[in-house]
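User: Quick one: structure for sequence A, then sequence B.

Assistant: Sequence A:
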Amino acid sequence: MFQSLTERQERILDLVIRTYIRTGIPVGSKVLVELYDLDVSPATVRNELAALGEMGYLVQLHTSAGRTPTEFGYRYFVQKLLGEFSLPLHEREMIRHQFHQARLDMNQWMQLAAAILAHTSRGASFVTAPQRRINRFKHLQLISTQGRLVLMVVVLLGGEVNQQMLTLAEPLPQVRLSAVAQRLNELYSSATYEEIVALSGHLDTLDAEVTRLIVEVLRRADNRAISEIYRDGLVNLLEDEGTRQAVRVLEERTLLADVISGTQTADTRGVQVLIGGEGRWEELKDCTIILSRYGVVEHFSGTVAVIGPTRMMYGRNVAAVRYVADLMSGLVYEYYMDELPAGESNELNGVNVSE
């Protein structure tokens, strides 16, 4: 969690990060006072920089050097200091015109979105094609193995099979486990995870625990699958020593799917900002990914994203991802509108930053 900052500390942190993003040079107290005509002395600024360093927002490589932002500092900046930012009107009009010309060809949408985001961010981009996101339950088996351990096998419509071990509070005979499986198979036949949640009230302890695991299987299935992937701007990552490893994320479908599913759940709305891999993906430790789902979330949706070094133009890139995602959502809604339930919304707004 973020530590509380004074108004002056927030102002100084904001200026350090914006200056470092623009110049790439560590920022010192004298530079801040001269550039921004601050009404305090360099010594006061130096003390505040030291305090921000102790709290983990800034780092100083050696005593005489200026400060640079940490991943933690960037997160605070994006979540609390960045503010609203929109692409200039002429850029938005140009992008909209390009999409209008390609609106009848979905492959062109994807390629165009990737090219626009790579150009705008001066980094790399990826776009996944929209696809159906709802999986359905087919069959459950509970198999007694040893003592309190039970093998749970969940089969989804379409043939996907998931297996995991369940530890019971006490050993149960196979006949009891089979009865539970039969009961849940009948109750949840062809159901989505939301339908299972709605049907699962007033269950006993074992049925409720097995149901919880079934729901998790369906949620993961809904959020991890990706189909076609369109990429652009990889050369921009190769030019930066700190972000070359991120190319692996864009080249390995399984890893990319893991990043997408790990940041965007079924309930996610709007732009997500993933800074430094959040301790989960070593390949992203020097990178930021800004991504958003687009489309009609529970029916047809994909992901648009930019990826680059943590020192990036966050305001511009968040605005670009949001704008392209909004355009893509409108196109997907028009493309699939005959297949959607009446009154379905394609609204996807907001910005979220992992802490």
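Sequence B:
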Amino acid sequence: MLISLLLAAVLACQTAQAAYVTVTVDGQELPGEVLAREGVTYVPLIRLLDAMGGWEAEWNQKERTASADTGLFSLSVTERRSHVLANGYAFDTGADVFLYSGRTYVPLRSVANLLGAEVEFVNWSTPIAVSTVPALKYTEEDLYWLSRVISAESRGESLLGQLAVGHVVLNRVASSQFPNTIKEVVFDTKDAVQFEPVANGTIYDEPTAQSVLAAQMVLNGTRVIGDCMYFFSPALSQGTWIRENCTYFTTIGCHRFYR
């Protein structure tokens, strides 16, 4: 009982120090209180789900967990965790989920990205704009090769890491510097083999279930690493050309990503 009271007091104190900001989703203001503290914007999960896809959330009091079905994957969000689950696979949110005024609050950027939206911070006096990313028109062949390159390049990585690899492939498809189909990007050899699994044959291995989900999510709008088009694993490669010619963006698991 004492621990619960102390936790409530801490959250109340933190919330009291938070700023209130405005968020729009596809041009419509998100209802409910939006909180910003320590550089992170938090929104009520149920409001975000409704605004982005009309999805409904259920609350399990015993597990302290909110859950929803997005049509593509099941989402599970547990209080005081810094990750959420997509079909049971952990996706790092970078900050803890918490309860405030009887609602589950989640870090906006990471959860919106997971659900298939981009988030643009303008400034404190104007809205933070959330824009849903339309699902791509893709074929079974697209899913086949994307899931395989994700699995072969990042088997054992987190869902976030696998989404990032898939995102790089789609960024290349959209770029005039690379071929314009997923298969052609995967097997591109214009400036040498682009993906090691093509050279060692693991591109043909059966993909993991998580890799298939990651491919489906990326094709349906999940975006996690901006405009990055390169990555390498320092444990397997020096990445000399990438380091000398590209701008470092972030590290996820074993991979470093570059623009």
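Confidence is low (pLDDT under 50) at residues 1-16. The two ends are 50 Å apart (CA to CA).

User: Thanks, that's what I needed.
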